Amino acid sequence: MAMALPRIGLAGLAVMGQNLALNVAEKGFPISVYNRTAAKVDETVARAAAEGDLPLFGHYTPQEFVLSIARPRSVVLLVKAGAPVDQTIAALAPFLEPGDAIIDGGNEWYENTERRAAEAAARGVLYLGMGVSGGEEGARRGPSLMPGGSLQAYDNARDILAKVAAQVDDGPCVTFVGPGGAGNFVKMVHNGIEYGDMQLIAEAYDVLRAVGGLSNRELAAVFADWNRGELESFLVEITADIFLVGDDDGEAGGELVDKVLDKTGMKGTGKWTVQQAAELAVAAPTIAASLDCRFISGLKEEREAAAAALERAGIGGAAQAAPAVDKQQLIDDVRQALYASKICSYAQGMNLLKAKSEEKGWGLDLGELARIWKGGCIIRARFLDRIKRAYQRNPRLANLVVDPDFAAEMANRQAAWRRVVALAVTAGITTPGMAASLAYFDTYRRARLPANLVQAQRDLFGAHTYERVDRPGAFHTEWTKLARRRAAAAPLN
Ligand code: 2AM
User: Fold this and answer.
1) Domains of the chain, start order
2) Residue with CA closest to ligand 1 atom 19
């Protein structure tokens, strides 16, 4: 039987590329694959045979690879972001023809995608920057896909992407995100939100362990229980599993989590998110706190020295003044604090997307983005459905926390949330993410802030002028002169 030529190819067969290619083949779409180093082509072909004789075809030169695909071609790239993408495109470009499409599935900086799309367009080649989330397992079983760029390129591969993506109750976890680098940008913010989620979970763990005295087994039970309620999510689920794993190599046994060095790595998307938030003047304190914590976590030796130096100065270890707490009450409070903090973190991420969409004219549909994050990706969670519905109710929602449903949830949880943050502050346990979320909430919901005083200071020393609450216009006052005159007329003491 003559097999039709594949419509799609994939270049870059590291972990993500191999698994995504196998996923495509398993969904019934023949696929050509290529990798700079031949061994990975052989490896992928062997896996395709072993995992059910999947229609996957290995190629060893860029020419042979491109020509094996039927026009119009969809060529997915999963190579390291940055220069390797340019080099791979340069290798394939001589064989691509007008109407073909390049789909970069890496964690690429969105402006690189926009530059490459313009270069490709000059040759009639279409371009998509496609965020792919879900790690190894997601790529193989069904990731969340965030393609942006050429709508024609998306339409060419639409049926394939819809089958390859994770499937949830309201459809496949893929949508055409928007033009230009929108797909990469959305993936970047997804990762920033992911940083926030992970930090908030780590803080919940820290409070329960250091103040509540919970054992790893108790923590496993608590997180498993939370995963059956409003916090149901991939990250809460895997956290419960982590606490259960024993340390087989250790001398004294115990759980492996206690032997993992407290240093968090990173690859840059969280940093980009915070940089973009600053560029767009969007407050993202929870995501920024999670990034700062990764930075400080890297200073392990400095922290150990600081702990010793400050202990000598009389500042005891963590949980120094932890008041006695009721364990059940603490667990329940921390669950609520985690949920409320998470809502604020998502509000920040969504508002960053909204600001960028307005700046670039991308027309991002925030409810639809929440929908495609419901499955496949690392931040997949039950409550993303609530976010989707909030934006469906009001596409122009100023902030998630003022959606009537979320506002009610915040109101129900704020007492527990404040108790947890206050307890942590008293005990000297850091909850930077929860505290940042709470400060964000309290700052945002106050109709009047002390910003009047800051503006008065600016006018005093820099004649920056100020506005008044009671009449329009820009005003300047000789604050110092007037203050001296008043003080002379009526001394303060
Ligand atoms: P390799 O197996 O030949 O190293 C992740 O590193 C993936 O990106 C791998 O498939 C790797 O190919 C590929 N990659 C990294 N740099 C590359 C480059 N400059 N050109 C082509 N592929 C590259």
Assistant:
1) 8-179 (3.40.50.720), 187-444 (1.10.1040.10), 451-489 (1.20.5.320)
2) 84
Tens-digit pLDDT string for the chain (493 aa): 456 799 999 999 999 999 999 999 999 999 999 999 999 999 999 999 999 999 999 999 999 999 999 999 999 999 999 999 999 999 999 999 999 999 999 999 999 999 999 999 999 999 999 999 999 999 999 999 999 999 999 999 999 999 999 999 999 999 999 999 999 999 999 999 999 999 999 999 999 999 999 999 999 999 999 999 999 999 999 999 999 999 987 667 799 999 999 999 988 999 999 999 999 999 999 999 999 999 999 999 999 999 999 999 998 765 555 667 899 999 999 999 999 999 999 999 999 999 999 999 999 999 999 999 999 999 999 999 999 999 999 999 999 999 999 999 999 999 999 999 999 999 999 999 999 999 999 999 999 999 999 999 999 999 999 999 999 999 999 999 999 999 999 988 8
- DSSP string for 183-247: HHHHHHHHHHHHHHHHHHHHHHHHHHHHTT---HHHHHHHHHHHTTTTT-BHHHHHHHHHHH-B-
Q: Which atom of ligand 1 is least distant from the CA of 83?
A: 19
Within 10 Å of residue 259's Cβ, how many Cβ atoms? 11
Gap between the Cα atoms of 276 and 356, Å rounded: 9
CA distance 231 to 339: 7
Atom of ligand 1 nearest to the CA of 12: 10
Q: Is the CB of residue 260 below 6 angstroms from any atom belonging to ligand 1? A: no
Q: Say yes or no: CB of residue 271 within 6 Å of ligand 1.
A: no
User: Nearest residue CA, atom 10 of ligand 1?
Assistant: 12
User: How far apart are the C-alpha atoms of 245 and 469, rounded to whole Å?
Assistant: 59
Residues 6+ apart with CB under 8 A from 23: 139, 140, 141, 142, 143, 164
Mind telling me the catalytic residues? Answer: 187, 194
Q: How far is the centre of ligand 1, averaged over its atoms, from the C-alpha of 106 (Å)? A: 12
Q: Helix, strand or coil for residue 381? A: strand
Pairwise CA distance, residues 134 & 143, whole Å: 5
Ramachandran assignment for 24, one of left (phi > 0), alpha (psi -120 to 50 degrees), beta (any other): alpha
Compute, in angstroms, the gap from residue 58 CA to the centroid of ligand 1. Answer: 16
- How many Cα atoms are found within 13 Å in the side-chain-facing hemisphere of 348? 35
For the entire predicted model, the pTM comes to 0.96
Nearest CA to ligand 1 atom 16: 84
Q: How far is the CA of 89 from the centre of ligand 1 (A)?
A: 12
Q: How far is the CA of 75 from the centre of ligand 1 (A)?
A: 15
